[in-house]
Task: structure prediction
Amino acid sequence: MNPALPKNIEKLHESRKGGVKVIITYASAGAGHFKAAEAIYDCFKKQHKEIDVEIVDILKKTNVLFRLSYTLGYSFLINHAVFLWRLAFLATYVGFLRRFTRPIALVINRLNAKSLSWFLEQESPDFVISTHFLPSEISARLKKTGKINSKIISVVTDFGIHPFWISRGTDIYIVASDYTKEQLIKEGIEEDGIKVLGIPVHSKFLGQFEKASLCKKLGIVPDRFTVLLVIGSFGIGPIEEIVGLLHREAQVLVICAKNRNLFKKLKNKKYPNLTVLGFVENVQELMAVSDVIITKPGGMTVSELLAMELVPIFISAIPGQETANAEVMKNYGIGITADNPGDVRDAVIGLRNNPDKLEVMREKIRMIKRPFAAEEICNVVCSNSIGAGS
Result:
């Protein structure tokens, strides 16, 4: 046992009698961080029942104002003041500006996340796995000051790297692609501490799908070119215009999620070749019957569509990480970024009329997809568990 650790932490480790404790942390600001954490948690529960694992929304361990700034504040900026979001991203990303903004952010986070720090100190887990940069930062600081002795694993949930993800004291960075790894190395992270395993996705995206039977189940035509349109949790984008241009060109499936207003509007259009859905639990089946997906380039969304080998057309990217995700896919020769509804229509028609181009993109997806990230992350923990908890 580390002699520098407080006695209460030593006693806690002793009480586990050799068991390994893992805390998986995420922030409920956007669905992607939770989905990644949930995928890892489920994998532990199914395949490594000997490990004591807990999943924690870190925003519940911060004060109310800070929590609202992460949830409602983020939603407001993305929907109503995206230019402010762009400025905030640049201020924390650009090299000479981050020298000033990063220290300020560190102080704000520490002041508002005292309950999280206390929780981690009390639990003193053997491993902290984070799918959001804030708990990685807090955990790394606690480790540097000798308050915990955990191995810290940061699971980066985008294909680009924002500087907030970089916390000295992190043991392992899990990243989505070789490009992401290169960006971390440029930021000064040692190559040995980076593993290219992918962004964890739910196991439902890893199954085998029989298209004909699924089409029958879903009530759609199996031999018609099919486009899946997913608007995301913020409902951003010219969805009505896109649907109006596409319903004569392809079979269109639209997932409106919780946007009831959009759902009613599209239903009332009574377009042919259009299926309008609300919140669904079977998105993997809808992906399996589709030829193309139109969506925002969130890190989790990209990881899911790669797992399903579904060619993307990206729309309405949020400045910063989403634009970076789209750019990385473009560099790999995967997907198309459309700036307006007309571009979306042209992209769909181009792919529909050129099946060879579509297959080339699918082949490139097969080369970079990493659908078993959750399982591999669990294996990383297990391989590093020798001596932990004792």
